[in-house]
Design brief:
Elements lengths: L2 H18 L4 E5 L4 H10 L5 E5 L4
Parallel strand pairs: 1-2
Helix pairs in contact: 1-2
């Protein structure tokens, strides 16, 4: 995915995550690369617990 598209995608995901996430713990599979990694980076915030799984994690 081109860099500009990735930044736009992250901004949209973050906006939605900030308004819809009600829990402190989130499980993300496939977090060692690709979309799972981008999602983990986007959702990482103080006070949230991210449980990450992946073959290379």
């Amino acid at each position: 995915m081109p860099e500009a598209a990735m930044l736009r995608h992250r901004a949209l995901c973050q906006r939605k995550a900030d308004t819809t996430m009600k829990h402190d713990s989130i499980l993300i599979t496939g977090a060692s690369s690709g979309l799972g990694r981008a999602l983990a980076q986007t959702l990482a915030r103080p006070g949230r617990r991210l449980w990450l799984g992946g073959r290379k994690a």
